[in-house]
Amino acid sequence: MILVLAGTLDGRELAVHLATAGHQVLAAVISEYGRSLAELPGIRVHTGQLTVEGMQNLIADQNITVLVDASHPYAVNGSMNAMQACELAGIEYIRYERAEVCVPEYERLYVASDAAQAAKLAASLGKVIFLTTGSRTLKVFKTEPLLAKCRLIARVLPQPDVVQECVDLGFNPGDIVAIKGAFSQQLNAALFKEYDTEVIITKNSGTIGGADTKIAAAIELNLPIIVIDRPDINYRNLCQTQEQVIDMVDNIECNS
Questions:
Q1: Residue 113: partners with Cβ closer than 8 Å, 6 or more residues away
Q2: What's the average model confidence in pLDDT over 211-229?
Q3: Are 77 and 148 contained in the same domain?
Q4: pLDDT (mean) for 200-211
């Protein structure tokens, strides 16, 4: 049985490709929304946050032979837990990570090492800041003293718990854009203009994550954009194409 951490679109696609190639696949997702997306032909689904111990138990209970980590490029804790669980369980870990967007030459583009640095940098660039970083980093921006007098716009998934999280953090309802991507350059530009955006913050989550269209919209509007760089993790068995993953899984299972 192959365990795929499949909280992304390309992770779900990879799970399907592995199943189509003849492998038994268990997809692990965090939320019920993720479960609704991952329930695809030939795929079993496990729902819920997994600690290291939880992954170990799942590996043992389901007779997992290979774990494929296709989680979001910024889901550091999940990846670290997965590598540790695989080492403890004595099974192979494979990391699938989508390619980054090539950051273009643009004098108003800034790269930050993390959300905290991005928050401080944004304070020097404008007063209306459009956040397209997902919900998990919103607290960093809301609690940064330098942004206390700034208007923060949060674009998040239209899930009740995510919207409630924004409200709990102090976002005004009019500053919550609950909408599911992908977003074209035109839609990004329209939203940035609608909210009188002065600064955009995003992550380099690849083309699937829409980083390219956000950057293009910023350039179109001549707005500063801060790109939070990917975490620096030394992944084992790193693959950037689904074909590489399938070949590696085949080799592991043939040699086991």
A1: 228, 229
A2: 95
A3: no
A4: 83
Contact present, 58 and 4 (Cβ < 8 Å)? no
Q: How many CB atoms lie within 10 A of CB 146?
A: 12
| Other beta carbons less than 10 A from residue 157's beta carbon | 15
CA distance 83 to 20: 26
Within this chain, do residues 238 and 155 fall inside the same structural domain, yes or no?
Answer: no
In contact, 78 and 104? CB cutoff 8 Å: no
Query: Amino acid letter at 66?
Result: V
Block residue for tokens 């942004």: 147
Residues 23, 56, single domain; the answer is yes
CATH code, 151: 3.40.50.620
CB 41 within 8 A of CB 13: no
And the tokens for 145? 């003293």
Domain that holds residue 19: 2-99+233-254
H or E, element range at 249: helix 242-254
CA atoms within 13 A on the CB side of 103: 17
pTM of this prediction?
A: 0.83
Provide the domain count of the chain: 2
Per-residue pLDDT, 256:
64
- Which of 68, 99, 70, 50 minimizes the C-alpha distance to 1? 68
Whether omega for the bond prior to residue 60 falls within 30 degrees of 0, making it cis, is: no
Asked whether the bond before 190 is cis by omega within 30 degrees of 0, the reply is: no
